[in-house]
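Severity: low
Component: inverse-folding endpoint
Summary: output formatting inconsistent between runs
Steps to reproduce: submit the following structure tokens with default settings.
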């Protein structure tokens, strides 16, 4: 972990088409494209220092809309992909999404989500490693990052922060293009994390993320 404070604006991707065996990596719906444009407009007024994204299409398309509006390049990281789309060693699994069956990943934490894929336990390690890199990149860039990823990634991050038992996860709601503002303070004697806002949609409603806006000044 870095020694510098970092503000992370964590964004779940915009609404996507349903995946299937024929389309294991779907893009955005028309509504999702509209959501991504509204998100991009809002971030254009509260621009971060760095923009990072999962490489899956639904996140990548959301991030590209933000990049076009803010002028920021996208830093791609396959470790920010959804659960089950990587092998246990963290490398992307081609075609993941076409064979998953059974209970949700968090309810079978030691089982692979898709054939040859990681388990939820492996996934939490992958997310932890990805977030270490995110924090380092954020500190190097100026201290404020927008990170476009997936509901599973955000679940795993919060599980890691609160040290949730693998069989007793924290249930949290994540709306499409909702933003969650976490601050990381590595030198604090208490928890290094502060949750400023969760699942907010300032771009979809007449809301404001006061702490993020203040940190962006």
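Observed output (run 2 of 3):
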């Amino acid at each position: 972990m870095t020694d510098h404070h970092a503000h992370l604006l964590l964004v779940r991707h915009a609404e996507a088409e349903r995946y299937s065996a024929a389309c294991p990596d779907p893009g955005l719906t028309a509504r999702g494209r509209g959501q991504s444009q509204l998100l991009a407009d809002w971030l254009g007024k509260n621009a971060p220092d760095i923009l990072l994204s999962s490489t899956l299409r639904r996140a990548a398309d959301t991030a590209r809309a933000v990049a076009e509006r803010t002028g920021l390049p996208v830093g791609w990281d396959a470790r920010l992909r959804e659960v089950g789309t990587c092998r246990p060693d963290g490398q992307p699994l081609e075609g993941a999404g076409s064979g998953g069956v059974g209970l949700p990943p968090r309810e079978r934490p030691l089982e692979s989500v898709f054939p040859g894929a990681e388990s939820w336990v492996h996934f939490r390690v992958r997310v932890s490693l990805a977030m270490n890199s995110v924090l380092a990149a954020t500190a190097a860039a100026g201290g404020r990052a927008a990170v476009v990823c997936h509901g599973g990634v955000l679940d795993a991050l919060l599980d890691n922060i609160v040290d949730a038992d693998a069989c007793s996860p924290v249930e949290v709601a994540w709306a499409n293009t909702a933003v969650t503002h976490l601050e990381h303070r590595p030198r604090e004697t208490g928890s290094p994390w502060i949750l400023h806002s969760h699942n907010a949609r300032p771009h979809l409603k007449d809301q404001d993320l006061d702490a993020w806006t203040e940190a962006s000044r």
